[in-house]
Design brief:
alpha/beta, six-stranded mixed beta sheet, four-stranded antiparallel beta sheet, Rossmann fold, globular
Length: 238
């Protein structure tokens, strides 16, 4: 299976503080990969570097075979990537519907799948259909997270990066979000997930990568990490 995303030797710093030290990872078309690790190990920086939100100092990022590490974030998005960022980052002066229309792209997402439209993303999270004229800041935390996911989908991406999409949310909302991620997987969308809930991640991700101090410390099938208490304690503190 060919890789849609290939990351080789990724190094990223914030000023003089280096965070990533040669990250390698690959995601095939339609594959779900989890990036795990304790806090402060470089997970969010890895996603931000891939999306062009934080410019890496070294390394190569290829999307569908084309190098993108020097491109602006909006051009990487046009190449087929979307991110659901940590902290939701909704716009306070835009309504739910305006968020969706702002992000809408006519590009077809994955092969054989229908393009995302406002109607289709409302079907994914029906409660937001009732809030489409509400401003982003009038929504609850869970509703804002649903909006952030729907906004990403409106770009019709081939790969979605989820950064702590369920953190701090009520169990019912977390269940809705994991159901939505499972639906994306069924549609053939490639996914990278950063999340602390090993059990939920293990149900959707085929592979896991564990970061430790900005390096890949372990990688392998999800089942291997989910069933090995020694690995969990060593790398995740479980």
């Amino acid at each position: 299976m060919s890789s849609f995303l290939e990351v080789d030797g990724l190094e990223t710093s914030y000023g003089r503080s280096q965070v990533l030290f040669g990250i390698d990872l690959a995601v095939a078309e339609g594959e779900v990969v989890a990036v795990m690790g304790r806090n402060g190990m470089g997970k969010t920086t890895t996603l931000r570097s891939i999306m062009g939100l934080t410019r890496p100092q070294r390394g190569t990022i290829r999307v569908a075979g084309a190098e993108v590490q020097q491109l602006a974030a909006y051009r990487i998005a046009r190449a087929g990537l979307a991110i659901v960022p940590e902290g939701r980052q909704v716009f306070r002066h835009l309504t739910v519907r305006e968020h969706l229309l702002m992000a809408q792209s006519p590009r077809t997402a994955t092969r054989g799948a229908e393009s995302w439209t406002p109607g289709r993303v409302y079907a994914l999270f029906p409660r937001l259909a009732e809030r489409e004229h509400h401003f982003g800041t009038q929504l609850s935390g869970g509703e804002q997270q649903m909006l952030a996911i729907r906004r990403a989908l409106m770009t019709n991406p081939r790969l979605v990066l989820f950064d702590e999409a369920t953190e701090g949310l009520a169990p019912m909302v977390r269940h809705e979000i994991w159901s939505a991620i499972a639906t994306l997987k069924e549609r053939g969308c490639a996914i990278i997930i950063v999340d602390k809930n090993l059990a939920d991640v293990g149900r959707v991700a085929e592979r896991m990568i564990v970061l430790e101090k900005g390096r890949v410390a372990w990688s392998g099938p999800s089942a291997a990490l989910c069933t090995d208490a020694t690995l969990q304690h060593r790398y995740l503190g479980v």
